[in-house]
Amino acid sequence: MIAPASTKPLRCAIYTRKSVDEGLDQDMNSLTVQREAGEAYIKSQKGEGWLCLPDPYDDGGYSGGNMQRPGLQRLLVDIRLGGIDCVLVYKVDRLSRSLLDFAKLIECFDQHDVIFVSVTQPISTSTSLGRLTLGILISFAQFEREQISERTKDRMASARRKGRWVGGRPLLGYDVSREERALVVNELEAQQVRRMFELYLKERSLTRTVACLQEEGICLKRWVTRSGNSSGGGPINKNGLHRLLSNVAYVGKVCYEGETVEGAHEAIVTEEVFEAVQHQLKANDRNGGVRVRNKHDALLRGLLTCRHCGTAMTHTFSSKKSDKVYRYYVCQRAMKESWSVCPSKSVVAGEIEAFVVERIRGLGSDPALQEEVIDAFLSRQSKARKLCEKDLANMQKQYRKLQQEIQHAIERQMGAAEFSLLEDKRKVCELALQSISVRLERLQGNCLNRNGIIRALSLFHPVWEKLTTPERCDLLGLLIERIAYDGEAGEVEIIWKEEGIHALLENE
């Protein structure tokens, strides 16, 4: 190895990596062996001016398949700051097992005139032959990594086909035996699971079953992670209950690629109970909620919210033996958690849709309603402008402060890394200033007066009568930001979109 002709020493950094963190607490571990080999190599080149840097660049417990490694990132920062002339590794795959990542690293080294050396392999990027050999070796390293990944997937697939548990979140009713890597029945939780199935067959409703489970204090599985932290244990909602009731693990089976096979664990519920629950779940399924809701042209879909809970109100329906359809908007929180948590619960769809449409129609001719809505609309306009002006003032203050910090950094000759961080903050601040300025300009330029709002609302009635139902849905979405329904007080609040008023005036 011949060092570059230079009067100054060749500053060498040793990078070490180990994929797993086992044994890192020992005095003599893989990282120590790698570093000692690198130090010995540098010592052998002492006559050529090689100097070992004291800073360790170690990554214990990190995969070579990506670059998200703290030690590697510190190494790259120091290279960009000009503090390293040569990087040594024990073997090529210690730096990276990804050909793409490796190419990026070598490109970075070249840009900063940094030599790369593998201690146990005759490789140096200072020669063309070394570069060729390096490319071949890293290709084999990536191939080996892909082979390991494929073998791991094959082993997991084989275990699944044999009905074995291969990892994931523990399931309510079972504990995980780390030694046997298997699911073991937790008798206390198993009773809760059987009770869950029993309640659903009795109530025949996810919502009512969730309410019963909450009353009885039955929650999701709580477990302790390998790091010793407690996880899970939250309340069961409708979606979680549906997943639990549909899980074939409770009848001692395992799903793999759409195929259900016999599991190696013990069942908690009988096949008869499980099948009865699946039959009831299918009976309650309306075969595509989105399609059904579209079928009935819910005018306020996506607009109506529950004022008490702050959640959306979903359009749904029920039908009687007479085939008559009864449409409702239902609070999502009440649907997911329990009917008792929301005072509004639901509202008849036809009634609230008619109320909203008539209120908009009335705004074109009723002076009292006009004044009420216009005052609220102009007040929101004013508040939005003032808030935007405040945001702009705060951001300008922050920008001036950053400019001062950058000036002080220049005067103190701050390091490149810290200076780069300040420059990044300044760029982000400039983008925020530009965004807020554009928003304020739009708010100031789009100001509507009372006459403009009245004229826009008067256009609603003639336009509305000519539209199809889907077009009416689009128009309401254009005019209204949201509708807040308070079932307890019997109040409906319409929050308008300023751009919708402008659109009506533009199409006048």
Automatic annotation (TrEMBL):
Nuclease recorded as keyword: no
Coiled coil segments of this chain: 385-412
Gene Ontology molecular function: DNA binding; DNA strand exchange activity
Protein's recorded name: Recombinase family protein
Pfam families given in the database record: Recombinase, Resolvase, Zn_ribbon_recom
UniProt xrefs under CDD domains: SR_ResInv
Protein keywords: Coiled coil
Domain Resolvase/invertase-type recombinase catalytic as annotated: residue spans: 11-163
Domain Recombinase: 171-287
